[in-house]
Amino acid sequence: MPRGNGEMVLVIDDEASIRTITGQTLQAFGYRVLTARDGAEAVAIYVERKSEIAVVLTDMMMPVMDGLNVVRVLTRIDPAIKIVAASGLAANGSGNRLPEAGVKHFLIKPYTAEILLKTLRAILEEA
What we know:
Blueprint: E1 8-12, H1 16-28, E2 32-36, H2 39-49, E3 53-59, H3 67-77, E4 83-87, H4 98-101, E5 105-108, H5 113-125
Parallel strand pairs: 1-2, 1-3, 3-4, 4-5
């Protein structure tokens, strides 16, 4: 499976178990990880540490600020940001608006470690 090279990933998910498992997986494969419980916390972290964050992995269905709004705010802060969106609802209506918001990579939950790692490598290697 593809490994990271110390890149920082911001993982945004309202489910603690997903943040923990995803974070442990990413660390085991050579990534550094920051986590956020919701979109508002994620925006605050991104503003403070954007120069360190290589890619954002965000859940789409969250309280406080949903994934689509997180994508919109982060893209305004940094138009070149790399974002991977994830949702357990493949038919989630907000998923249809992701391409116009600048998100090219979408994972359907539950995803495997292999799919996550391959997706991260793909987005990090894009020009």
